[in-house]
Every structure is written in structure tokens, then in C-alpha cells.
TrEMBL record:
This is Uncharacterized protein. It comes from Flavobacterium bernardetii. It comes from the Bacteria.
Length: 224
């Protein structure tokens, strides 16, 4: 939460009427970074569509695609919100720019996710783990993606932390991804201070392409 202190009460039932789906679709995919395995192989995750389950207000149906090297798999699954905590509201961005913006409250949601790749596609499996997302409630009573502290060092959001397991195999690898940073990885991999920056020894694990795409004006969407 970038220094924000959280209230301990779980307010998930009080916030179930709101739709959080847009929070996971906000960030440009070139700024979503992920790793697969202990060697920090780059994995790209694109959540393409998300819809709220009308029969379960805390559950969201997800369709997306994953990419490792040149292997692309589509997946379906769900995100289930388990906990919503409000913050004590002590930080309002650089120079308190959001202090008088009418924000009603902000906080952190904790969820679990299960994404199942198409079994007919090569090297497919399923993702499971936990998700943390920062949000705020604006003056119009709409849930928004919390980018209040986006200019602070180390900012990140939508932290997916878990594993990927291949179907019908003992192969299981840690798999973490998030907006602007890879969550829960050792500092020897991400050596950036103000922003994400991969140590050179990991460039050959698919990250050299990530560095070069930042220099291009036009980038083809690999998931289309």
C-alpha cells in the first residue's frame, strides 16, 4: 500500500455491490511484468475480459492469454474476492494532490485466482494463487484503480503471487506478475529503484525483448 496503514476489519460484504472488474484491465500490457520459475523466465499475461458473476457478487469470470517465449495459450477462470480493507488515509499523492479530490475512501482487496489454460494447446497448465489490488472510491461512488502514488519509487498494483502447474505432470513453477513491478521477487532480479529494471544476467530469459519494445512506437498486440 506504499506506506498506507490498513484497518483490520474485513468490509467485503459492504463493498460487494461495487464492480471491481475494470481494475484488472486498466494497465497497458507492456507494463505488466511476470516471471515463471526460479530462473525468472519472462511470462506475459493478458486479461482480455472480466465479468462479475450475477449469482455471486464477489466472484469474477476471466478470459485471457499467456505467453512464454513463442508459446501462447488461452485461459479461462475466476477471481474471488476474500477480503477488503480500508486504509487510514494518511497519504494523498505527491504534494497531497488528491487530498481535496473528493475521494471517499481507499484500500486493498485480497482475492484468490484460478486460471485454466486450454488443455489442447502446447505446454498448458493452470495458475493459482493470491491477488492484491489497491483501489479507491471516487466522489461519484465508483470504484477506481488506485494510481494515487504512481509517481513514488517502487509503486505497483495488481500483485498476482502463486504458481503454474502443467496438466498431468509433476512440473510446478512459481509464477508472479503485476502492474509496473513483479511482486515478491528477490532484489537481485529487479535492480531498479524508481522503476522496474531487470539485472543483465536475466535478459536472455525473455526480458531483452521487453526492453526493446519500450523503444518502439508501434507494438503488435501478441494476444490478438
Amino acid at each position: 500500500m506504499n506506506g498506507e496503514k490498513l484497518l483490520q476489519t474485513n468490509e467485503v460484504e459492504n463493498f460487494s455491490k461495487y464492480d471491481f472488474s475494470e481494475l484488472w484491465l486498466q494497465t497497458d500490457n507492456n507494463l505488466v511484468y511476470g516471471i515463471l520459475g526460479d530462473d525468472f523466465q519472462r511470462i506475459q499475461i493478458k486479461l482480455i475480459s472480466i465479468s462479475k458473476n450475477i449469482n455471486n457478487q464477489n466472484e469474477y469470470f476471466v478470459y485471457g492469454k499467456s505467453k512464454v517465449k513463442e508459446n501462447i495459450c488461452e485461459f479461462v477462470g475466476k477471481i474471488t474476492i476474500l477480503k477488503i480493507q480500508e486504509s487510514k488515509r494518511e497519504h494523498f499523492g505527491v504534494d497531497d494532490e488528491f487530498k481535496n479530490s473528493g475521494i471517499k475512501t481507499q484500500g486493498l482487496l485480497t482475492a484468490k485466482y484460478e486460471f485454466f489454460e486450454n488443455k489442447l494447446q502446447s505446454h498448458s497448465g493452470y495458475f493459482t494463487g493470491s491477488l492484491e489490488t489497491k483501489w479507491f472510491l471516487d466522489k461519484d461512488d465508483k470504484i477506481q484503480y488506485d494510481n494515487i502514488n504512481i509517481h513514488s519509487d517502487g509503486y505497483f498494483n495488481n500483485a498476482f503471487v502463486g504458481s503454474w502447474k502443467m496438466y498431468h505432470s509433476i512440473i510446478e513453477k512459481k509464477c508472479h506478475w503485476g502492474d509496473y513491478r513483479v511482486p515478491s521477487v528477490e532484489c537481485g532480479f529487479d535492480i531498479g529503484a524508481a522503476e522496474f529494471n531487470i539485472a543483465e544476467k536475466y535478459h536472455k530469459k525473455g526480458w531483452l525483448d521487453s526492453i526493446e519494445t519500450k523503444k518502439r512506437e508501434t507494438i503488435k498486440n501478441w494476444w490478438e
